[in-house]
Structure formats: structure tokens, C-alpha cells
Amino acid sequence: MGQKKLIKFAAIKQYENVLEYPQGMPGKWNAFFEKLNLGDYPISLDSLEISTSTSPKNNTPIKPLILELACGRGEYAVGLARMFPAQNFLGLDIKGNRIWKGASIANKEAIKNVAFVRTQIEQSIQYFAKDEVAEIWITFPDPQLRLSKAKKRLTHPQFLRIYQQFLQPGGSVHLKTDSPNLYLFTKTVIELYGLTLITATDDVYGPTFMQSSQWDERYAIKTYYEGLNIASSNRIHYLQFKIDQDLPHAKDELLKEMIAAFEVTETHDAKRERGVKTNED
């Protein structure tokens, strides 16, 4: 591991706004953010109270908790936290050296309604209680375009089944991607499983969409990966949908057959396999 990565890993271990594989957190995130906002350090996770419909201390409503999954450098989590100080934001990613960037910005700007968890997305069910999460953002994840890796796509039904266990009824999932393949795959999932599609555009910055009633200031936040334009699509695709139906496993094989003909484009991993060095290496 490079020296810079080691320095970043050491730094986040000292950050109160970064947790690594935290235990016993379901239902405690509102209390955690209250401590973070008050600067009540060090924060003892074991002593945090579990919140239900109201904050246990002052009987005020619990702030909505919004997740950014595979957050990378955390640009979306931090950007949303700036926009909405009355909400709490949590970025999840396994790469500690990437999390360091967003966490450092939040510390420098004293943004106390955003934090980060270093973990695998597959383990996210361990960290949240039922209905604890209001919204989920998935911004520029690796589209995992090989058919053999389809189950690693963060909008695959096996992941949606995880999110469904802690996402509030009526809560939305937002996908922002430069991959037309991941966009079409996700639309296929939504249709096949009968989920509610709220918004869909294959050109989120196009003048037609930006001038429509569907445009939202949150879409304007840009990430490091967006700037790379790895898929060379020259368009940013966006979907918002609800996981408001059961996701029967019996349909997964049909989904696999439906996506087999999708056009394949290049991913981050494919570039590395060909020996093309990226800025993250």
C-alpha cells in the first residue's frame, strides 16, 4: 500500500465522522448525528440511544437519514449536506482512502450532518433499523458490465432486497450514471419487478430535462467519477424509483436472460485489466 494511502487510513481512524464496520448501530443514527453536531467527542457508540418516531431527549422529530452508497470521495453526500442542513447524510464505501476526501472536507467546513461508514454495501443491512433510511443515492457506481458480474450491480434485485429492509415506505432510490448499460439494466429491473418509476432521463443535463418541472437542484452535484466520463457516453443518465413491490427470486433468471444482449462498454476494472492506469491506482 502506498504511503499516501497509509496516511489517509491513519487519518480517518481519528475522525469522529468516519466509522469502520461499526457494531450495534441500527436505530442509533439520529443520536450519533446529535453527538456529532454538538461536538460531544469521543462518541461512544455503545451509549447511543435508539430512536423511534421522535428524538428521545427533546421530543423533536428525527431528521431524515439519506444514504450515498459506494460514495467514493463523498461528493454527493457532502453536497447534499450543504443543501439540506435539516437532514443527515451518510456515505458508505469500502475504500478508506476515498472516504478520507469527503470526510476531510466536512471537517474543514464544519459540516456536522454528514458522516461516512467504511464497509461493503453487502453488509449495509447490519447498520440500519427497519424504516430508518429515507432515501438512497447511488452515484456513478462501477456498472459491472460483464454478465457474470451482473449480481454485483448495485441496482440488481439482490441489492434492492437489502435496501428494502431499511428504506422507509415511499422512500426513493436515485441512480446517476454515465453508463447507458446500467441505466437500461435498472429500467429493466424496475419494469420486470413492477416497481414504481418516478423519473427517468438519459440526459440529465440536457436543456429539455433541465427546463422541465422534473429538474431538481440535487442533480447538479458533480462527482470526480462523473468528470472522468469512463463510459464515453457524453451523457449522464438518471433514474428515481421506489422499491414498493416484492422482488421474487424466481424472476432473477429471467432478468439474466433479458440483459444478455445489452451492449458492453468499458468499466473501471476492465481498464485496469488492460493495463490502463487510472487516477485511483
Structure in words:
There is one protein chain. By secondary structure, the protein is of the alpha/beta class. It has a domain of 142 residues: Rossmann fold, CATH 3.40.50.150. Helix content is 31%, strand content 17%. The protein has an eight-stranded mixed sheet with strand order 1-4-3-2-5-6-8-7, sandwiched between helices. The longest helix has 13 residues.
Gist of the model:
The chain has helices at residues 3-12, 29-38, 75-83, 96-108, 157-164, 180-192, 207-210, 224-228, 252-259, 268-273, and strands spanning 18-20, 65-69, 88-93, 114-118, 133-139, 167-177, 196-201, 237-242. With 281 residues, the protein is α/β, with parallel strands linked by helices.
List the helices and strands and how they pair.
Layout: H1 3-12, E1 18-20, H2 29-38, E2 65-69, H3 75-83, E3 88-93, H4 96-108, E4 114-118, E5 133-139, H5 157-164, E6 167-177, H6 180-192, E7 196-201, H7 207-210, H8 224-228, E8 237-242, H9 252-259, H10 268-273
Parallel strand pairs: 1-4, 2-3, 2-5, 3-4, 5-6
Antiparallel strand pairs: 6-8, 7-8
Helix pairs in contact: 1-4
The major sheet is characterized as: 8 strands, mixed
Rg estimate, integer Å: 19 Å
Helical fraction equals 25-40%
CATH superfamily assignment of the domain at 140-281? Vaccinia Virus protein VP39
Mean pLDDT: 88
CATH topology of the domain at 140-281, anyone? Rossmann fold
What percentage of amino acids are in beta strands? 15-25%
Question: Strand order across the biggest sheet?
Answer: 1-4-3-2-5-6-8-7
Tell me the CATH architecture of the domain at 140-281.
3-Layer(aba) Sandwich
How many strands in all? 8
Instruction: Report the total helices.
Output: 10
The separation of the N and C termini measures 10 Å
Summarize the helix and strand pattern as letters.
HEHEHEHEEHEHEHHEHH
Which residues sit in consecutive blocks of at least 5 with pLDDT less than 50? 265-276
Q: From the structure provided, what is the oligomeric state, counting identical versus distinct chains?
A: single chain
Structural class: alpha/beta
Q: Can you tell me the overall shape? A: globular
For the record, the CATH class of the domain at 140-281 is Alpha Beta
